[in-house]
């Protein structure tokens, strides 16, 4: 089973030998790949939709993996039981939904060793929710696939809080590791935001002034992130 670059990045964050649950499994490609390669000992492929789950069941059967991969109809983590898995994967959903699934599944999280999440948007909300639920972010990877930027996060149980807003916005692990793809994204966003500010220079309507305020705040955060690449830590004076 060949995975996309994005899903392969997700798969490679799973600790080898773990039992996994894939939330929103769709057609079951990730658990199939993980079990076939011996990365996961066993898997539970979970989805809230009957159609995709039926297709996942079919794909698992075709590969004779029925003894190692179970499919389960579930809204988020609702049907997961304590002690069943070591790793939970939540990938390919919006950040608001990922955060919601984590919050609603808080009852089961203490029994989980690690989380691997790949939110499609509002990544900062997922980082904040992980911290709110006493999960520590230990690894992040950023990639580009078909012109789109993606971030994959790995977390384990533990208390942690970030001090700076840009650490939640862009990922402290990525910033401290001077991730080159993140740097590319930050520079691109900074250029776009500064060009918008130039266009709004003579706008004095309430809406225009509010937009300028938002953009100035965004640029300050982008500078905070880019300072890591200049060897200046959290210095935002440049």
Description:
The chain is of the alpha/beta class. It has two domains: 5-161, Rossmann fold (3-Layer(aba) Sandwich); 162-238. The chain has nine helices and seven strands, in the order H-E-H-E-H-E-E-H-E-H-E-E-H-H-H-H. The chain has helices at residues 5-11, 29-36, 50-62, 95-104, 123-132, 165-170, 172-176, 180-199, 206-226, and strands at 18-23, 40-47, 69-73, 87-93, 114-119, 135-145, 148-157. A seven-stranded mixed sheet has the order 3-2-1-4-5-7-6, sandwiched between helices. Helix 2 links the parallel strand 1 and strand 2 (40-47). Helix 4 packs parallel to helix 5 (123-132) and helix 8 runs antiparallel to helix 9. The longest helix is centred in the C-terminal third of the chain and has 21 residues, at 206-226. The chain is elongated.
Using brief descriptors, characterize the structure shown.
single chain; 238 residues; alpha/beta; Rossmann fold; 2 domains; 7-stranded mixed sheet; 9 helices; 7 strands; elongated; disordered C terminus
What's the arrangement of secondary structure elements?
Blueprint: H1 5-11, E1 18-23, H2 29-36, E2 40-47, H3 50-62, E3 69-73, E4 87-93, H4 95-104, E5 114-119, H5 123-132, E6 135-145, E7 148-157, H6 165-170, H7 172-176, H8 180-199, H9 206-226
Helix pairs in contact: 4-5, 8-9
Quick recap:
This protein is α/β, with parallel strands linked by helices and 238 residues long. It has helices at 5-11, 29-36, 50-62, 95-104, 123-132, 165-170, 172-176, 180-199, 206-226; strands at 18-23, 40-47, 69-73, 87-93, 114-119, 135-145, 148-157. It has two domains: 5-161, Rossmann fold; 162-238.
